[in-house]
Amino acid sequence: MRKRVYVPYCSHPLTAVIIDNNKPYLEGLRKNLDKERFQYTLYDNPKRALDDLNNRYKAETHLGQAIEHFDQQETGHVRMSFDVSQVYHEIERPDRYNQCCALLVDYEMPGMNGLEFCRQIKNPFVRIVLLTGVLQEKEAIAALNEGIIDQYIRKYEPNLIHRLRDILLQCQWNYFSRLSEALCGPLMPFGKNSVLNTPLFSTFLQTLMHSEKLTEHYLCDSRGTFLLLDNEGQAHRLFVRTAQQINDLLKTPQAQQAPQQVLNDLRNHKSLLCVFDSAKPNWIPLGEQWQHHVAPAHKLPGEEGVWYAFVKDGTGVSSQRVTSFYQQRHRDEAAAWSGRSM
């Protein structure tokens, strides 16, 4: 049985695919939906959309690792390997934003209705939202109960755009959580009772990213070090540490050479030692250098014995090497259209 992942290894802007033979309706959606965290591909031809999506899934890579595909009907799952060192290659890879996390599919289309379309999607991670009219709700509810779709929404309801923005954000997070459940690697499964994989920490991380206008997060080690990016590729870090981790740090040989004030602040949870080396995940600097690597500590809301430090800038990641979503979203908007011929 798979471990449920509440906090995925990573999350970054993705692509939402919208399929509807009504071109003006498609353009209206694209112009009004969230462009800070999504790019959009539009199809008015469901058959071409289906071919493109299934072919794209076969070629997708995540964190620089290819998915190992298994027959979905026989095994019901896929498996993917994960190497934490790939995080730094991932943030330089522009096509990470092209992964499709959500499908918005119209129910009524010529030649193939929305449910027939959804049944043929091979990607088990993509989240599917069916756009329905009033008369199709009965079929949509049945499809939801069968697991064919993840959600449905009336395509002409008054608050459609607002609801779709919320739905897409949840689709993005659920996409990465489900993808993380299929990963095999050194971070899985975050430890037996890790604070890094709880609904409480999931809410905290999403709230922090929203308040600091961050759009990407990457887990860098099993201790609780995260790399965070904004839309322009500026890098920040989040360090999460438990009381046990802090106590273990204070017992290391390096701690014996650290300044007393630094040790007192660490012991009293006023600061955290914020260091990370991708080549040596367990690296600890010499004690004499600790004063240059501490940041103010804050208690993690709702958790006993857990503290965090959010460090802006100065993380050792060059923004010149990062491919940012800001650069990606300024591409020619004409590229959003695919499959114009019916």
Description of the molecule:
By secondary structure, the protein is of the alpha/beta class. Helices cover 30% and strands 24% of the residues. The protein is built from 11 helices and 18 strands. It has helices at residues 23-32, 46-59, 72-75, 87-90, 114-119, 137-146, 160-181, 199-211, 243-250, 260-267, 325-329, and strands spanning 10-11, 14-19, 38-43, 61-62, 65-68, 79-81, 100-106, 127-132, 151-154, 183-184, 214-221, 225-230, 235-242, 271-273, 294-296, 298-299, 306-312, 337-338. The strands form 4 sheets. Strands 1-11-12-13-17-16 form a 6-stranded antiparallel β-sheet. It has a 6-stranded parallel β-sheet with strand order 9-8-7-2-3-18, sandwiched between helices. A hairpin with a 4-residue loop joins strand 12 and strand 13. The longest helix is centred in the middle third of the chain and has 22 residues, at 160-181. It is elongated. Mean pLDDT is 83; it is low at 66-78.
